[in-house]
Amino acid sequence: MIELIPAIDIIDGKCVRLTEGDYGRKTVYGSSPVEMAQRFEELGFKRLHVVDLDGAKSKHIVNTETLKEITAKTNLVVDFGGGIKTTDDIEKAFDNGAAMVTVGSVAITNRDLFAEWLAKYGAERMILGADVRHGRISINGWKEDSDENLAEFLRYYVEKGVCNVLCTEISKDGTLAGPATELYKEIMAVYPHINLIASGGVSCIDDIKRLNEAGVPSVVFGKAIYEGRIDLTELWHWQNA
After folding, report:
1. Residue of 89, 131, 173, 207 marked catalytic
2. Other beta carbons within 10 Å of 233
3. Backbone φ and ψ of 104, nearest 5°
4. Can you give the pTM of this predicted structure?
């Protein structure tokens, strides 16, 4: 059964969702990140994906206090990403309660540093962020596209021992247009042993069911929750039926 991972994206201490990674197409939601995390835990979720969008834009983590409060007030296993560019950033994330971190840009811009982190913290605590636009890996809060294509990127890091991959199809993210299921099928066909986390485009429970049928291990979803398109109680009952 697919692992369900609700997402909280943070700007200025508020829950937000972007459309296709565009900071100019931002929707702010009422609940605070901590209140939302507590709601997820009350509904029975065990994992939480937290994205520091201020950090992604600033190229260093920003919302450490919010991360600290979420991890202090819930028992959720939190993976944290956004702006992790230095060893100081990653240490701050772990020191403030993150169980895992998602790193994307550094895996492109400083492979030696990413390899150092893999060795120091262990592959089980590292999630490779593979953010894709037009087949290329995007970096720095999705503001820049690198020259690296997805296939080369994954091959390089899976050979280095990466076991957790968060793959976001940027054109789908925040659009509620359905996930890139065919892309995830292709990845799983080549790397059936990795923990692939699908992200972007989930609009309803049926989207999650299709990902489950495709053999995708995990899914991150956010906007469909905040827009009321997914009944979380119904989703939880489906997963635990």
Report:
1. 131
2. 10
3. -120, -60
4. 0.91
